[in-house]
Design brief:
Distance between the termini: 39 Å
Number of strands: 0
Largest sheet: none
């Protein structure tokens, strides 16, 4: 029964997401961007599915609570790290129909954005580990869920843009979509991180008052 509960369907889907992430990173390194985009979409879809099945069938486990956010961080942070090394995404390739000089179009993914995304995940993970070890409830909130959604949308837009850029400079609408979703993901990352810090401070204060 114990092994059956540990290796239930939600945890199997989470493990699949980790495996898909590794395969996707290989395709990203080989510059197969369309395949990488498809794999990312499938992997992100398993995140919704494992949560759905866990809630519907009451299959929430301790392993799942640890493995699920870990898989999310691996695929999201890993994807942005790989994408930050691709020149067209950092503004080196302007839209085909842009009548402006190159420097004015550096609105794509920048290394500092990846630092913000990875730093936020490390901070929230550390706070959650510290607080839940002391019995506090530090579950994901709506801001964190919206952050994850916007990060996934941005990753797909970035992968689509760099795939289009392999054959020719992408159109203006593709550049605007890529830049807008990237900034939305970064801003939501900062906002959700700030909310988690505020919640952590409140929990720490209440824990001190209870002593």
């Amino acid at each position: 029964m114990a092994s059956q509960s540990i290796f239930n369907l939600p945890n199997q889907l989470t493990t699949l997401r980790l495996l898909l992430a590794v395969v996707m990173f290989g395709f990203l390194h080989a510059e197969f961007y369309f395949t990488s985009m498809v794999l990312f979409i499938v992997a992100a879809g398993t995140d919704w599915l494992d949560g759905y099945f866990a809630r519907k069938y009451g299959q929430v486990t301790t392993l799942g609570r640890i493995l699920d956010p870990f898989a999310d961080k691996v695929i999201v942070c890993g994807t942005f790290i790989f994408l930050a090394t691709i020149a067209p995404l950092t503004g080196a390739l302007p839209p085909a129909d842009a009548a402006v000089s190159l420097p004015a179009w550096k609105w794509g993914l920048q290394p500092w954005m990846v630092v913000v995304i990875v730093g936020r995940e490390l901070l929230v993970t550390a706070l959650r580990s510290f607080l839940e070890d002391r019995g506090a409830d530090f579950s994901a909130n709506w801001a964190g869920k919206w952050k994850m959604l916007l990060q996934c949308v941005a990753a797909v837009a970035l992968l689509t843009y760099v795939w289009m850029a392999q054959s020719a400079p992408p159109p203006l609408w593709a550049y605007v979509t890529m830049a807008a979703t990237t900034w939305a993901a970064v801003l939501s990352t900062i906002y959700s991180g700030a909310i988690y810090v505020v919640v952590a401070v409140r929990l720490l204060r209440s824990m001190r008052l209870d002593r």
